[in-house]
Amino acid sequence: MANTTTFTGVDYRDDAVRARDPDDVTPEDSKGLNSNLAKYQKSAYIAYPDRRAMFNWLPQYNDKLENHYSYKRSSHLGPIQHGEVFSFYQANLERRYAQQYPDSYIDKWREVTLKRMQDWGFTSFGNWTDASFYNNQQVPYFANGWIIGDFKRLSSGFDYWGAMPDPFDPEFVKRANITTQVIAQEVQNNPWCIGVFIDNEMSWGGEGSTTLRYGIVLDALSKTTGNSPTKSVFSDMLKQKYKTISQLNKVWNRNIKSWKVFDNTGVNYKKDSNFNNAMIADLSWLLIRFSDEYFKVVNHSLKSVLPDHLYMGARFTSWGTSPEARWSAKKYADVISYNYYREGLDPMTWDMLKELDMPTIIGEFHIGSGDTGQPNPGIIHAANQRDRADMYKTYMKTVIDNPYLIGAHWFQYIDSPITGRAYDGENYNVGFVTTTDIPYPELVEAAKQVHKSLYQQRYGDVEIK
To answer: Nearest Cα to 154, choosing from 146, 144, 164, 162?
Structure first.
């Protein structure tokens, strides 16, 4: 239910509602609803009148649907940094399935959802599966977690969701252990759990310019060894390789006065375009060391508590993943994961899987249409619901036909709120069901067709038409 909420335009003057637990392992956008807000609602006021005016109706605080209010302490995009939220989807579930006993409509929703997954032929729940489904014993699933906390970070220069963690910081290792322990407690070694995704769409750097590809390394080099654990590791590596600062200057074509200056002042190359081949090779070498450490730490943390479950990687993107990160993931992940929003998997982009030679899964894709009343169809647009269903089959065919791909996860089960989800305002028609929990029949039928011939298409001679 975490991303079914939308901002109401109301905020609370009581600052206690924004307090954070330093040991929290769940990011704000993944938190469920906190309906115990009565003491904070006493200080409610309309903080954003234009936002409030978007709604024809919202329940009073003494209404039977008031338990679908919650509070978001932060957002990623938009003018509202924090405030009251409401889940129309969850309220609609209560309307539809009724309240026979406390939260009975949620139990009914889980029952209906599990039956749908089986009837529609899905072979698993994808990432973001709510932990309440972890013990369902009917549909295989993937668990997930985030490593968050007060550890050092580094910027790639394109940090859409945030800067990268410093994997050499002991605090990062500590937080990784805490996160995986929580996941293990939720999974309880359940064999229906196929594997675990940790983190999502991180900013590893792209494959464009040198400054973009090696932005993490260049940011580390601009820091001092005293305030960046990664810089300290990089400094030791370079000292061991070059021995003297003169030798480093000669190879890199630089004029750094001493190792002391290198360590304690930092060297800023972020706007520098003068990179020779030898320096680029070293930047790649350092980035591999950084990436290796991240995946090694996560692998060790996860396998120490869930040794019988797959480590599914960090869900790379097509816009922010350096080749070095892929090769590091190959060393430590059981499966490499990508989120890929396109009409399908084109051979040119995905030819790299031949060399990588690893089981790979699509962690997210979707297609939406503008004929539902949603302000935005989604990242990939279809003409209408029939076209949307056909595009789904086309995308899945490119996955099934690729021998390195072991599956694809659709994002997401539910349409976004029309007024935008609280975290970043997404208001997409990307669900298999509407915000009133009604399935889209064309998309459901397309999924049934794909799944019915899934294994014949992959291993036999049957084609999806």
So the answer is: 164
Cβ–Cβ < 8 Å for 71, 40: yes
Q: How many other CB atoms are there within 10 angstroms of residue 394's CB atom? A: 14
Q: What is the pLDDT of residues 99-132, one digit of tens each?
A: 889 899 999 999 999 999 999 999 999 999 999 9
Residue 440 C-beta-side C-alpha neighbours within 13 Å: 27
Name the more confident of 327 and 271.
Answer: 327
Give the tens place of pLDDT for each residue, 420-450: 999 999 999 999 999 999 999 999 999 999 9
Q: How does DSSP classify residue 184?
A: H
> Rounded to whole angstroms, how far apart are CA atoms 279 and 302?
35
- Comparing CA positions, the residue from 133, 143, 146 lying closest to residue 29 is 146
Measured CA to CA, the distance from residue 261 to residue 271 in angstroms comes to: 19
Is the bond preceding residue 456 a cis peptide, omega within 30 degrees?
A: no
Question: Phi, psi (5° rounding) for residue 44?
Answer: -70, 145
Say how far apart CA 69 and CA 67 lie, in whole Å.
5
Confidence of residue 300 (pLDDT cuts 50, 70, 90): very high
Which two three-digit tokens encode residue 59? 């329940």
Angle between helix axes 441-452 and 385-400 (nearest 10 degrees) is 20
Q: Which of 325, 460, 349 is nearest to 398 (CA)?
A: 349
Q: Are 118 and 402 contacting, i.e. CB atoms less than 8 angstroms apart? A: no
What pTM does this model have?
0.95
Distance CA 198, CA 201 (A): 10
Residue pair 141/21 in contact by the 8 Å Cβ criterion: no
Look up tokens 């061991």; give the residue.
240
Tokens of 143: 């668990």
Strands 316-317 and 336-339: parallel
Mean pLDDT confidence for 166-171: 98
